[in-house]
């Protein structure tokens, strides 16, 4: 497989190009026909669970870390987080490896930042509770997850942090699908916001992503993969969010 470096314009940050290269080479990002939980037929699929060797973990950690640094630079009113939080289950290794990469980049700034994650079921023995790692009371929390579609997990995570006494100051995902939230009649043509847009509106929590659906379309255009590019463009046209 060719490196995508020759397909992506030099204006794209290197960490994004490396991230997409890793996604393709490891089949983390694939193109075809996939049924989502919402029932939609998606022409692409992203599976962060496939980042399961050290090189791939390094690639995704680097991408998250640089996205976080850019996110905080672009939003100077957001405090540096006290805790990086990874929702169970896929968010757990993402939070850990990203925090290590942030420390590697800037130990003075990130060396004392903590991480934590939630249990799916609270323990009633041992240390007990529903949180593993750093406690969240009075902490500013940055959440890392893979992909958000309906927003249910996003809301649950924000509520978990609130119940533990923390405050979510940002939500970072790997891929922003840019699609409107599902409805009972999903082909109704009615404009609706994306899950991330709705969360921003409801909770006032800013969000960011490593890449977007637009980036994937541009990737396919640069590769000359017209068939898959047109399928993604059709999907975007059909389900594009209003935000």
Overall strand count: 8
Shape: globular
**Radius of gyration over alpha carbons?**
18 Å
Which spans have pLDDT < 50 for at least 5 consecutive residues?
Answer: 1-10
Order of helices and strands: HEEHEHHEEEHEHEHH
Q: What helical percentage do the residues reach?
A: 40-55%
Tell me the β content.
Answer: 15-25%
Q: Strand sequence of the main sheet, in spatial order?
A: 5-4-3-6-7-8
Structural class: alpha/beta
Name the features.
243 residues, alpha/beta, 6-stranded mixed beta sheet, two-stranded antiparallel sheet, 8 helices, 8 strands, 40% helix, globular, disordered N terminus
Structure description:
The protein has helices at residues 14-25, 54-74, 91-105, 107-110, 152-163, 195-203, 213-223, 226-239; strands at residues 29-35, 41-46, 83-85, 114-123, 129-133, 140-147, 167-176, 207-212. It has 243 residues and is α/β, with parallel strands linked by helices. A 6-stranded mixed beta sheet has the order 5-4-3-6-7-8. It has a two-stranded antiparallel ribbon with strand order 1-2. A hairpin with a 5-residue loop joins β4 and β5. The chain is globular.
Furnish the topology, listing elements before pairings.
Layout: H1 14-25, E1 29-35, E2 41-46, H2 54-74, E3 83-85, H3 91-105, H4 107-110, E4 114-123, E5 129-133, E6 140-147, H5 152-163, E7 167-176, H6 195-203, E8 207-212, H7 213-223, H8 226-239
Parallel strand pairs: 3-4, 3-6, 6-7, 7-8
Antiparallel strand pairs: 1-2, 4-5
Helix pairs in contact: 1-2, 2-3, 7-8
């Amino acid at each position: 497989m060719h490196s995508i470096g020759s397909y992506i314009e030099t204006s794209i940050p290197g960490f994004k190009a490396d991230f997409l290269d890793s996604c393709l080479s490891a089949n983390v990002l694939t193109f075809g026909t996939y049924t989502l939980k919402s029932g939609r037929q998606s022409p692409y699929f992203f599976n962060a669970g496939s980042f399961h060797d050290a090189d791939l973990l390094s690639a995704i950690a680097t991408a998250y870390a640089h996205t976080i640094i850019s996110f905080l630079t672009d939003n100077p009113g957001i405090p540096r987080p006290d805790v990086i939080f990874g929702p169970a289950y896929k968010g757990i290794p993402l939070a850990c490896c990203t925090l290590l990469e942030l420390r590697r980049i800037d130990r003075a700034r990130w060396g004392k930042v903590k991480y934590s994650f939630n249990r799916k079921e609270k323990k009633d023995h041992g240390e007990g509770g529903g949180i593993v790692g750093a406690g969240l009371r009075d902490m500013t929390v940055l959440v890392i997850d893979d992909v958000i579609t309906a927003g249910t997990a996003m809301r649950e995570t924000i509520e978990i942090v609130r119940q533990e006494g923390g405050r979510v100051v940002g939500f970072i995902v790997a891929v922003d699908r840019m699609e409107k939230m599902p409805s009972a009649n999903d082909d109704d043509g009615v404009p609706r916001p994306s899950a991330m847009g709705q969360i921003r509106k409801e909770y006032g929590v800013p969000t960011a992503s490593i890449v977007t659906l637009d980036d994937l379309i541009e990737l396919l255009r640069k590769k000359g993969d017209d068939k898959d590019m047109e399928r993604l463009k059709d999907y975007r046209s059909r389900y594009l969010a209003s935000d």
